[in-house]
Amino acid sequence: MFFERPESGEIAVLVHIDFNDQEDRHGPEEFVELAISAGADPVAVVTGSRQRPDSKFFVGTGKLDEIKDIVIREEAQVVLFDHSLSPSQERNLESVLKCRVLDRTGLILDIFAQRARTHEGKLQVELAQLQHMSTRLIRGWTHLERQKGGIGMRGPGETQLETDRRLLRDRIKAIQKRLEKVNSQRDQSRRARSRSDVPTISLVGYTNAGKSTLFNRATGAEVYAADQLFATLDPTLRRLDLEQVGPVVLADTVGFIRKLPHRLVKAFQATLKESAEADLLLHVVDAADINRDENIAAVDDVLNEIGANELPMLKVFNKIDALPTGEARIDRDEQGNPTRVWLSAREGVGIDLLEQAIAELLSDEIVKETIIVPANLGRFRAMLFEQGAVKGETYDELGQSVLELCLPRKDYLQILARVGMSEEQVQAA
């Protein structure tokens, strides 16, 4: 029911209204992309401006007549609004326009339904769809009266609408129960990674910023990546070995968008926890997008909603190949810490700089020291070599080993514990 799509694109009329009190105004371009991503065939974009939405039709009567004329002329099958409509507004518009009306939330839900591939992803989308649909059920049942009585036909007296709402509630509870189980399994996996002290790095960013392309380039994976909105819905985790850090887990997650429906954020809570509990966030930004700053702000809003706004973050400005003077580089703050990396995931330019910046940001967990190891601590020296922690060895005038180390702090502390030493007992060169 929720994942079937027509084979050909539906003829659609798009409506985008600016409101005078709106702070974050933006054009209809992104909404056109959303409609195309959903499989629609936009034949017209109706724009306008108002002080505030009309309570009955959202738009004024003059604009409504304009939309109706276009619908009749183009034989449109659906009218898409780049706004949130109330159930009554949708019903009123449909009664006048004589075709389906869908708001921004319904359109995004439709795209998610098409993109979901895993069982978990489909459950999350269906939950959001059912919750959205529960307030709009009356549309489909206005032609039905109370169920008829009669011999063999008498029931509890529910209307068809009440019956359907009860069935929806039961289905929502069942999905929530299954998603709680998925959430529990993800929590177990995260706890296991935490116990093994493997850092988790999560890719976040606006939809179509190039997260999956970067993920594939960094890990050698073959995650689906395309130049379209919401190409990735289902989270993918891969192990990545960084020279100065060791193994880390890199997570590719769903993209964000302006006015991302709150129901979707709640439905994808288990997925988004990969971001909320990461050791480092890589905020991937489309450097060539004219709405770059607004997109960054939209992602920050969602990160704030899921409680991930306080996590360490590195901004990754992708697609520098689309800039006139784009060059790969690392931007740093006053303390010399990396804050931005400029790269092109598609061309593979600047990936080494990204790995360098990640290593620096995770360096609190890395021991980079030069130490002196006397001859009587041969076991300690051997264990450091076995760990692959020795990057160079020389000897001082007393014949003692001078070792240049680079290894995770947890491994260093384990080696010291095994030889019965503390960090204070190690002699620095």
UniProtKB/TrEMBL annotation:
Q: What is its main location?
A: cytoplasm
Which residues does UniProt call coiled coil?
A: 165-192
Q: For the Hflx-type G domain, which residue ranges apply?
A: 199-366
Q: Which UniProt keywords apply?
A: Coiled coil, Cytoplasm, GTP-binding, Magnesium, Metal-binding, Nucleotide-binding
Task: List the InterPro entries.
Answer: G_HFLX_dom, GTP-bd, GTP-bd_M, GTPase_HflX, GTPase_HflX_N, GTPase_HflX_N_sf, P-loop_NTPase
* A Pfam match: GTP-bdg_N
SUPFAM superfamilies from the xrefs?
A: P-loop containing nucleoside triphosphate hydrolases
UniProt-annotated location(s): Cytoplasm
Summarize the subunit comment.
Monomer. Associates with the 50S ribosomal subunit.
Give the record's family classification: Belongs to the TRAFAC class OBG-HflX-like GTPase superfamily. HflX GTPase family.
**What this chain does, per the record?**
GTPase that associates with the 50S ribosomal subunit and may have a role during protein synthesis or ribosome biogenesis.
Q: Which HAMAP family match?
A: GTPase_HflX
Please report the name of this protein according to its UniProt entry. Answer: GTPase HflX
What is the species of this protein? Marinomonas ostreistagni
As recorded in Swiss-Prot or TrEMBL, the protein's gene is named hflX
